[in-house]
Write a structure and sequence with these properties.
Layout (H helix, E strand, L loop, with lengths): L17 E4 L2 E5 L5 E5 L9 H10 L3 H9 L12 H6 L1 H4 E2 L11 E7 L6 E8 L5 E9 L4 H8 L15 H4 E6 L6 E3 L6 E3 H7 L5 E3 L5 H12 L6 E4 L18 H9 L7 H7 L11 H12 L8 H15 L5 H15 L8
Parallel strand pairs: 4-12, 5-8, 7-12, 8-11
Antiparallel strand pairs: 1-2, 2-3, 5-6, 6-7, 9-10
Amino acid sequence: MKVKNNDFTPASLPPDGVKIDQGVFRSENAKGQPVLWILFNADPARDAAWEADGFKNAYSKSAWRREQLIDFQAGGGELVLRETLERRWKEIIITDPKEIPWAEMNFGAGLDYGKTHFGTWVVNGIDRKGVKYSVLEHGATNLTPNSHVEMMKTRRLPYSDNGAQPLALAKVGRTHFDPSLKTAKLSAQSDTFVSEIDLFVKAGMPSLTLGIRGRDLKIVDLILDAWNQTPVKYRIFCPTQVASRQNTHSGWQGCPNLVWELMNLRRKEYSATVEQSKGTPEDLVDKDNDFWDANKYEWSGNTPVSTQSPAEAWSNEAKRLKEVNPALDLNSLVIYARKFERENKVVPKTWR
């Protein structure tokens, strides 16, 4: 890309491309049909200074180049979430379960399964402010659906509900699963056609509903949008990190495998020859992404926002504050209540 006096040229403009006006170019495709290329600087208000500032502050440099400079090759091999996750790590990652408003949330989950890779289940919660939390993951290799469900039945969320940690399956409203699990296959045991999701149902997996495939980049955009808000709208409970993916167990806390996959989620990279026929690499590398897939199905299912009454919301918030700081006195609680009132435009009925 050469720049002179705001004279930008599309990075992927073919050799036969010609300039018509500032920021506007014309070329022909293989069939001789005209193709119009319109850059950001077709708008006179968008000059080199605007370009420099936009590129500097873009959440994805390669995405900015694809959108603004029509650079089809930008982003090949790009780690699509790592940059933002590292930049806002302390705002996104939660290590103390007391930071999570458990009692205010609706819970949903996503399920992915395959005999040759991790079978995974990721539980997400969403509070009444619309903030989503990934709070628990299950994942293991070389297990039957029945064995997976038996392990899931033991998993508990790390907060107290009437004196005990609640079972995750009891709190999850819906689990959205990979649609391919619905495909019936011939069972060697019964000589009948059975789908893998039928086996999960038979094992006692409740509230299963069909997920949506093929929305990886859409979900990436939704996550980036949530992470670029203030405060962030998507957080992950991860008290410890892992250097590589591991089988989870009954005492496993949070979503360290999911975090590892989000850090390593990568856009496909095409060679220059393939690029000419396929254009922009609009897919993610389908490897080491099983926890991502389960999470993606929950995102596509859109678990509803919690609809507590203002009084219930303040009662739960006051309870959480006292758990975090048992020495909290009445004066401090009043201050928190006033802040709660301003932020949520409600008047708490009681300070206690």
